[in-house]
Input
Amino acid sequence: MAQIDSLPPLRDVIEQHDLRAKKSLGQNFLLDLNLTCRIARAAGTLETHTVIEVGPGPGGLTRALLHEGAKKVIAIEMDRRALGALNEIAHHYPGRLEIIEGDALKVDIKSLVPEGPVRIVANLPYNVGTQLLLGWLEQDPWPPFYDSLTLMFQKEVAERIIATQEDKAYGRLGVIAGWRCDAIKMFDVSREAFSPPPKVTSSIVHLTPRQAPLPCTLKYLEQVTAAAFGQRRKMLRQSLKSLGSDHLSLIEAAGLEPTQRAETVPVEGFVDMANALERLRSA
Ligand code: SAM
Output
């Protein structure tokens, strides 16, 4: 295991602070600081950025972010038991680690961030990862308050995030992520890297906000994707029926075929249908 600082090895930290993993908090800890440094580097330049980390736990990724030069890390953790270990890290890197005890779903992250560029980097708890991602993708105004998201998900979720049309994993998440961000998979992380090992392989995804996504109102894009992928095996002329009697005009406005299925429609097609729906609803 790599020695990146003079703090104790993570295995010892977990034992000293009695951080036995709780399934209810999605706790699978990374113990290899080589690996956490690789994740930190996948986020890009850190020296100029404040990093928001959700769920630092015993602090493997936190230590890597600080070691790799993050100007400042703001770490949000809801498990009180981890606070002692995190305070030791804060002591080791004076003035560079701020710890917030709380539920990241309820914290107004944007308001925590000082002036200057921000990156979000996290090995997310599996039970709330997608919800947190959607919250970050649905920021208003856009471009958002962060420069990038570097996040760990279960491999299957990562594939849904980066999927484009014709990919098996393509669905609502891929449309929203692809509309607003450039999303790429960086690398896989095997189950054995975690303690305890989860059931499946994980992947690191890096998302960079598009400065000018195709103009569209999120609310309508969500309605169209929900209807289309809600019945993904059906043709659009059937699956979009729930949007109202004019649903065929949406398909026509987007230059699509009524016999197409949702999984063959690129992001631009959904954007065109969402814009047509907005015009219809505001007429
Ligand atoms: N970052 C550590 C690592 O890589 O070893 C821990 C990752 S573990 C998968 C997820 C962490 O998120 C746990 O420490 C857990 O307590 C924390 N957590 C779970 N739900 C949370 C929430 N809603 N808000 C903040 N932290 C949360």
